[in-house]
Design a protein that fits this description.
By secondary structure, this protein is of the alpha/beta class. It has a single domain (4-273), classed as Metallo-beta-lactamase, Chain A, CATH 3.60.15. It contains eight helices and 15 strands. The longest helix has 11 residues, at 208-218.
Length: 274
């Protein structure tokens, strides 16, 4: 889609997903498919390429469900298991396209990946293992081909986590604190997808109220809340409480944004596909 960016929310749940194993709460037993959540990840189609942010434990299932044929690059927000556990499955794209997967992450995350997947980084490669090319990133803009990525440096309790801004789309998960200077990078966005774990206070995630307060400060045209726990409540019930331009995310939700074209400098929210 020329001059458009397509965003697919592959998963919108927290580290356990929903339903949670052995849980009998009303959310885990809900018949509403919007209450079923795989681990958080997003697929972005922009500038003729496909970018994935985070490869959690459900990565294989998400790729098959969306019939993804190619991924050009993977961005990692941080190294926690629910965001990296599925990295082994990128080898399917290695095999099909005969090229290394481009990985973008911090030095700290690279070290964690080396510990988690030592066989990928070993000098003694055996056939069939994933092949990756690590591109180290810092808190400054970088490019993936023609697409500019702006990291947003936030805290997940005491851990550094990167969110990312691509054109006028911001994706920020696993966050408890956003420094003032990083908020500036988020202002003027058409769409912000933001962490909101549950209603009660949490040491390393924004609560529902904290997320709403931050979004009302930043004033995006549209905002969607992700990384959701079963403690949040039923999807439809929570949405009734939220401001008009803010809603809970759901798996397989797709959003299309207009990107900057040669005729103007506007970057407008185009379509929300329910």
């Amino acid at each position: 889609m020329k001059n458009k960016m397509k965003i697919t929310l592959l998963g919108t749940g927290t580290s356990q997903g929903i339903p949670v194993i052995a849980c009998d709460c009303e959310v885990c037993k809900s018949n509403n498919p919007k209450d079923n959540r795989l681990r958080s990840s997003v697929l972005i189609e922009v500038d003729g390429q496909t970018i994935v942010i985070d490869t959690g434990a459900d990565f294989r299932q998400q790729m098959l469900r969306e019939n993804v044929q190619n991924v050009d690059a993977v961005l990692f927000t941080h190294h926690h298991k629910d965001h990296v556990a599925g990295m082994d499955d990128i080898r399917a794209f290695n095999h099909k396209w005969k090229k290394d997967m481009q990985i973008y992450c911090t030095k700290f995350t690279e070290h964690a990946l080396q510990m988690e997947f030592p066989y990928i980084f070993s000098d003694n490669h055996y056939p069939g293992i994933p092949k990756v090319n690590i591109n180290l990133i810092e808190n400054k803009p970088f490019n993936i081909n023609d697409t500019t990525i702006i990291p947003i440096d936030v805290l997940h309790y005491k851990l550094q986590v990167f969110g990312f801004r691509i054109n006028d789309f911001v994706y920020l998960t696993d966050v408890s604190e956003v420094p003032e200077k990083e908020k500036e990078k988020m202002k003027g966005a058409d769409l912000i997808v933001l962490d909101a774990l549950r209603r009660n206070k949490h040491i390393s995630h924004l609560t529902l109220d904290e997320a709403v307060d931050l979004l009302q400060e930043l004033k995006p045209k549209k905002a969607i809340l992700t990384h959701i726990s079963h403690y949040m409540g039923l999807h439809d019930d929570v949405n009734k409480e939220l401001p008009k331009n803010i809603q809970l995310a759901y798996d397989m939700q797709q959003i299309i944004l207009n990107t900057k074209d040669n005729n103007n400098n506007n970057n407008n929210f185009d379509t929300l596909m329910n």
